[in-house]
Amino acid sequence: MCLGLTVSSTTALAAPKADLWPYWQAHQTNSTQQVDHQRWQLLLDRYLIVAPQQTRFRYSAVTDDDKYTLSRYLRDMAKIDPRQLNRREQFAYWVNLYNAQTVQLILAHYPVSSITKIGGFFSFGPWNEKLLTINGQSLSLNDIEHRILRPIWREPRIHYVVNCASLGCPDLLPRAFTATNTDTLLEQAAKRFINSDKGVKIDGDRVHLSSIYDWYGQDFGTQRELQQHLNRYRTGAPITLQQISYDYDWQLNDAQ
Q1: What CA–CA distances, in Å, run from 145 to 55, 96, 196?
Q2: Which of 58, 94, 100, 236 is the most exposed place for a label (fewest CB within 10 A)?
Q3: What is the pLDDT of residues 57-105, one digit of tens each?
Q4: How far is CA 203 from the centre of its chain?
Q5: Cα–Cα distance for residue pair 58/56, rounded to 1 Å
Q6: pTM value?
Q7: Residue ranges of the domains in the chain?
Q8: With pLDDT > 90 as the criterion, what percentage of the chain qualifies?
Q9: At what angle do helices 64-78 and 38-47 cross, to 10 degrees?
């Protein structure tokens, strides 16, 4: 999940709706083209720190050579027309592109306390900025998540694998997505987040949920359907969603 939230006059946060950009809906079912994500994997191997409850990224440690590696990866991705890929390659392409672009954005503004501090004076974060050009089309991070990934795949676990560089966000995964590991990583990401305190925390009769489940409630269905979704992945006794509160930590997922 990454949010791309907007701030209303009453300071309430509103998540964008899934709104298909038809241009990107095309795909080639029989395509055998494979996208190389090794440069992105190299950055994950070197700078991502995985701990039981949280992964953090060592932004301050990234060398100039590896910043170039990341830029080269993003340039390579921009040369690809994802509409010529099959659906599985497309999914991996868009998720990795989103996460790599987010890391590059943080590196370009580092040190910064939160991704929400990046962007125009009146904006809540950088999600609406046109940061990428793919096949001649200018795209923002919001475009990738809310106009491509969510409306095409209609998969709630997407929120567990696009990362907004914040402690409250589902963790940036240590493996780059590929056409062959996507199902496994989606399952791992859902289980990891839902069994972390930032995803679901029990306090007596009250259940503290990530604000993701509030902002994107439409993607998870009714309260009963959300309860079933959470219990599918939780270890231990099933939970009942009766008294609910929501929380989210926007602090940067930085590791010194």
Answers
A1: 21, 12, 23
A2: 236
A3: 999 999 999 999 999 999 999 999 999 999 999 999 999 999 999 999 9
A4: 27
A5: 7
A6: 0.95
A7: 6-185
A8: 90
A9: 150
Q: Are strands 48-50 and 6-7 parallel, antiparallel or unpaired?
A: unpaired
Distances (CA, A) of 172 to 9, 43, 51, 147: 32, 12, 12, 21
Q: What is the pLDDT of residue 53?
A: 87
What does the pLDDT look like over 6-35, one tens digit per residue?
433 233 467 899 999 999 999 999 999 999
The token duo for 105 is 């954005």
Residue 62, CA distances (Å) to 103, 108, 163, 173 in order: 11, 11, 18, 18
Question: Cα–Cα distance between 213 and 219 in angstroms, integer?
Answer: 9
Whose tokens are 């795909």? That residue is 27
Contacts of 15 (CB under 8 A, 6+ apart): 3, 4, 5, 215, 216
Q: And the tokens for 42?
A: 């190299």
Assigned token pair, 23: 């241009």
